[in-house]
Each structure stands twice: as C-alpha cells, then as structure tokens.
Prior knowledge:
Layout: H1 3-21, H2 36-47, H3 52-72, E1 79-84, H4 92-101, E2 106-112, H5 115-128, E3 137-138, H6 141-144, E4 155-160, H7 170-182, E5 189-195, H8 200-207, H9 213-229, E6 238-245, E7 250-257, E8 261-265, E9 270-274, E10 279-286, H10 290-299, E11 302-309, E12 315-322
Parallel strand pairs: 1-2, 1-4, 2-3, 4-5
Antiparallel strand pairs: 5-12, 6-7, 7-10, 8-9, 11-12
Helix pairs in contact: 2-9, 3-4
Amino acid sequence: MDNTQNTIVQNDFAVDTIEGLTSDSKYLSSKYFYNEMGSKIFQDIMRMPEYYLTDCELEIFSNLKQEILASFSENNESFDLIELGAGDGTKTKILLSHFLEENANFKYSPIDISSDAVLSLIEDLRTELPNLKVNGLIGDYYNLIGDIKPNGYLKKVLLFLGSNIGNFNDSTSFNFLVGLRKVMCSNDLLFIGFDMKKDPNIILNAYNDPYGHTAAFNLNLLKRINDELGANFNIDEFYHREEYNPDTGTASSYLISKIEQTISINNLDQNIHFEKGEKIFTEISQKYDLDMINDLAIKSGFEVVRNFFDERQYFVNSLWKIKP
Length: 324
Ligand SMILES: C[S@@+](CC[C@H](N)C(=O)[O-])C[C@H]1O[C@@H](n2cnc3c(N)ncnc32)[C@H](O)[C@@H]1O
C-alpha cells in the first residue's frame, strides 16, 4: 500500500464530482460513499434488521462454508483469495476462519478504495486470525484489476460479495465482468453476491430505514465534497429518497434539493445551481432473478458452477468459471 494510490483516488474524486454535478441529470458516483464516516455509517446499515442482505449472506457462509471451501479448492489445492471491495470483511471472516481451521492453503488479498477500510481490516485480521496470510491493497478495483496478472500456476478465487455488483448499471457490470474474465485463467473462480427480486416493501424498507442511517450515508457524500473539495453544501437543505421498480428490479437512491440554491465548490472554482426538487442520482441497487444472473454470466463469458442460497432465497452467492 502506498500514498500514491490514495492521491489518485483523491484526484478521481474531484474529476468525477464535477463531471456528475455539471451533467444535465446530476449524479455522484457511489464509490465515494466510503470515506471514514461513510464506512462507519455503512456498518450501522449492515447491523439494521431491515438491511436483510447482511444476514442472508452471513447465513449462507455459516451454513454452507464446507461446500464453499470444497468448491473453491478440490484436494486442498493452493489458491489466492482476492476480495474486491472488501469493506470491514465481517462476513468474509466466517469463510477465512473456516478455511484456516481446515488447513486450506491460501493467501487473502482484500482490495478497497477506502484506505480506512483496508487498514482496519488488516489490523483486525492480525488480531483475530494471526495465522492468515494477508496482502491488503488500497485503490479502485477497476484500476487494480489490471495488476492481477493471469497466473497459470496459482489458482485465483475472486470474491465480489454483498450486493456490490448491484451498484453497477448494465453496461458497467458487463464491462467489469469482462475485465475480470481477462485476468482469469481457466481454473480460476469468481464468487459473486446477488440480491434477489422480492416483495418491494422489503426492499424499500432496507434502503429507507426508520433510523435515518441510509439517509445519513447518502448525505455524507455532500459532507465529503465540503470537506475534501471546499464546497458549501448545507446538508439540511437536501433529503434522501429511494425508489424501486419491481419490473426491472432497480432500486435507486437520490438526494433531493429542498430549495432552489447555488453551491460553490471552492477548490475547483465551480458553482452548481439546483432547482427546488432537483435530484442527484447517487446509487443503483439492482435486484436479480436467476435468469438475469445466468444471462449476465453467459453474456460476459462465464458459466454458473453453483448457486448458494439462504433459506428464504432472498440472496444468492453465485460461483462462476470461465466458459471454455
Ligand atoms: C457495499 S460495501 C460492501 C463491503 C463488503 N464487500 C460487504 O459485502 O460487506 C462496498 C465496498 O466496496 C468498496 N468500493 C466501492 N467501490 C469501489 C471501487 N471502485 N474500488 C474499490 N473498492 C470499492 C467500498 O469502499 C466499500 O468498502
């Protein structure tokens, strides 16, 4: 890990913020949610009963960890376990600890754009799982994917957990998966979390919680722009809104301007005007069915090896390999 990668993330933040806020339909990239405060608020979100996604994946890992290890590594073959967007690794630790108990031969490389997330995960792992071989990487996984060189000797298992893939739109998820396929060899595996379509009320409650955690998480993006780019957003003049379309399975998060206002971003010498009620699109959280997952796998050059479900079938961890 080095500071150069942090500086690159910082510069990207300025460029992406201006691009998003000056476009006709304003948007901000969800990858910037996770500064120190954002990562803390996301932990609050993950602990809410309404945010069923965490419990589902915890259930899958706790109940099916033996089958998962058997699918990752036949006959105890060595592997590199690389996690994209590892966050605080709470759920992954269930797998890591089981793999160690079973004397699996592997190294764990968590990648995250949030330096706080990577640094505190490494510290936790040193205490909780001292025998684990870890190599943390700070940066954008889009950029770091290119550094994961195809390696014919050691099998790679790429983890993309939670519902990270759901934060991509159709073309981004396709490009991302094709990018992953290019750095994978024939026996490498990709293990991805997908949130399934379900009762719209259950989905809306997860992103519109009564405690205000999701609202605080979304509004924290504006605070981050104030702190890091010298802007003067008044957070009280915006609110969080969630929309869900059951036909497409798309949940979308927005920040809405309560009044007509002009914001200055001093460090970038830019003024941004908002009409009353104008939206900033901040995040997509796509929900899937099995046909959509299969189509995505096939379209991007993979095939589904096995799906691991929780009991309610709210969530699936889908194991993919490259289509021969
Ligand atoms: C929704 S959290 C999920 C964390 C963890 N995978 C889980 O399932 O609990 C998304 C994580 O991905 C990281 N992230 C988002 N966009 C990223 C990017 N482009 N490159 C690297 N990390 C990214 C965030 O910092 C955050 O820790």
